[in-house]
Specification:
With 270 residues, the chain is mainly β. The chain is 9% helix and 37% strand. A hairpin with a 3-residue loop joins β16 and β17.
């Protein structure tokens, strides 16, 4: 009987050891999370703000943020976060960036790149600028997007000027520069793109606090201003100006992906 017990116990020990190792191996996670969705960007002044939907997997540890100079180019890692938002402070004005997000879990598995076709072209902006009624202060009646400064209303660099005519405030532009009232907005960021039609035939617009106006300059640049308030001698406004010629992007680009057959996989990351 003692001999039987002597042989059975080592056998059970070996069996249990092998069984535990098999279970441990089976618990190793090699499955990456799904690619994040809903990537959204807001381009600002030398910065781009990104946000996206949280991943559904419970073991997601964080997200990696990538950029490229084309949708189907090489994507370079620029940062990581545990949040579903990120700000690219290294983005430069007048440069177009394409962004993608990956999710990674606690075991280091990383998803494919998000497939949203999302780009941003940062541009300069300013807030609480004052321009004066040119009838009263002609040397402070205009504004130049190029120099970001108040200029005389008749200066060659003036993209628009302000006047109060018979008690009504106007924003005026010189032909062939165009202007269009985009209506009431909550802030300067509400208008993402310049319109392709609807420009004022008289090259002016009634200035209304809370309204945003898009301006298409004679040399094919786009800017926008949002009127904050108007007094008896001045207009206070916020502005943004796209420094890439012909680029109508004034805030965001969040276009549904139309190249679903293209897979921005890990092979396109570096």
């Amino acid at each position: 009987m003692k001999k039987i017990i002597f042989y059975i116990i080592p056998f059970l020990t070996i069996f249990l050891f092998v069984s535990c190792n098999k279970n441990d191996i089976s618990r190793i996670d090699t499955q990456p999370p799904s690619a994040p969705t809903g990537l959204y960007v807001v381009n600002g002044d030398n910065r781009v703000d990104l946000s996206w939907n949280p991943n559904p997997e419970r073991d997601v540890a964080g997200y990696n943020v990538y950029y490229s100079y084309s949708y189907d180019g090489k994507y370079t890692l620029i940062g990581s976060t545990q949040n579903t938002y990120y700000t690219d402070y290294d983005a430069k004005n007048a440069t177009t960036y394409y962004y993608a997000i990956t999710a990674y879990d606690y075991d280091g598995n990383e998803s494919d790149l998000s497939i949203d076709d999302v780009s941003a072209t940062p541009r300069p902006e300013g807030f609480n600028e004052n321009v004066f009624d040119y009838n009263q202060y002609p040397n402070q009646g205009g504004f130049s997007f190029v120099s970001y400064t108040i200029v005389p209303y008749d200066d060659q660099t003036a993209d628009f000027y302000f006047e109060i005519y018979n008690g009504t405030p106007y924003i005026d532009v010189y032909g062939p520069t165009d202007i269009e009232d985009m209506g009431h907005t909550t802030d300067i960021y509400d208008i993402p793109y310049a319109p392709s039609s609807g420009w004022s035939p008289t090259h002016d617009a009634v200035a209304i606090p809370g309204h945003t106006y898009v301006i298409h300059t004679f040399d094919n640049f786009y800017g926008k201003i949002r009127v904050s308030s108007i007094t008896s001698d001045r207009m206070i406004f916020d502005w943004a100006f796209q420094t890439v010629k012909g680029n109508t992007q004034l805030k965001i680009s969040n276009v549904p992906n139309t190249r679903s057959k293209y897979n921005k996989s890990s092979a396109h990351k570096n």
